[in-house]
Amino acid sequence: MALSMRLSRGGSKKRPYYRIVVADARSPRDGRFIEKIGTYNPLLAKDSPERVKLDADRAKHWLGVGAQPTDRVLRFLDAAGVKERPARNNPKKGELGEKAKERLEERAEKLKAAEEAKAEAEAETVEVVAEAVEEATPDATNEGVSAEAPAEGAETPGEGAEATGASAEAPAEG
User: Fold this and answer.
1) Confidence band (pLDDT; 50, 70, 90) for 135?
2) pLDDT of 73-115, one tens digit each?
3) Cα separation of 128 and 92, whole Å?
4) Dihedral through CA 114, CA 115, CA 117, CA 119, nearest 10?
5) 53: helix, coil or strand?
6) CA separation for the pair 76, 51 (Å, rounded)
7) What is the mean pLDDT of the chain?
8) What is the DSSP secondary structure assignment for residue 67, as one 8-state letter?
9) What does the longest C-alpha to C-alpha distance in the chain come to?
10) What pLDDT, on a 0 to 100 scale, did the predictor assign at position 146?
């Protein structure tokens, strides 16, 4: 006979209350059991001592006889220090499914396309602004050359008079 340590549900609708029982593995969840070894009330706070009550001596006895605890009961036994629960390693637990990966790739492509469109729009805006600035200002390139310095070999009107030897003073008409 295969023995199982498991939870048997009691309580009312939306108000669960569980008994921790040792039962034949073939019997129904809430059906016949061999012995009740504790209780579990999930409605109480996690730090409440009344949440899980367990007879550790009887649990050790039934484990010695060969009863197999369910995962939830094994957690209770581990917390009580009766039997250590081995750490589980599921490397694929946090991995996304195929459809989720596809959706993520589609979203990334859409985001990349949106960023490229935004960059193009900004570049066009910069070009339009630059053209508007050029149109708004008078032809600054020609003025800048003549205002800065004359080209080599070109004489200014004052320099030409001095270079020819003409007097700087003009005769006064009188």
Assistant:
1) confident
2) 999 999 988 888 888 788 888 888 889 999 999 999 999 999 9
3) 52
4) 160
5) strand
6) 11
7) 82
8) P
9) 145
10) 47
Minimal CA–CA distance to 65: which of 136, 147, 5?
5
Q: Which helix (H) or strand (E) holds 62?
A: helix 56-65
Q: Which amino acid is at 39?
A: T
Q: What are phi and psi of 159, to 5 degrees?
A: -70, -35
Full DSSP string of 110-140: HHHHHHHHHHHHHHHHHHHHHHHHHHHS--H
Alpha carbon distance 5, 157 (integer Å): 114
Q: How far out from the chain centre does Cα 106 lie?
A: 17
Round to whole Å and give the CA distance between 59 and 126: 77
How do strand 15-24 and strand 3-12 relate by DSSP bridges?
antiparallel
Q: Are 82 and 89 in contact (CB under 8 A)?
A: no
Q: Which amino acid is at 10?
A: G
Residue 155 is which amino acid?
Answer: E
Which pLDDT value is given to residue 133?
81
Residue 9: Cβ-neighbour burial (10 angstroms; 0-12, 13-18, 19+): exposed
**Does the pLDDT at position 163 exceed 80?**
no
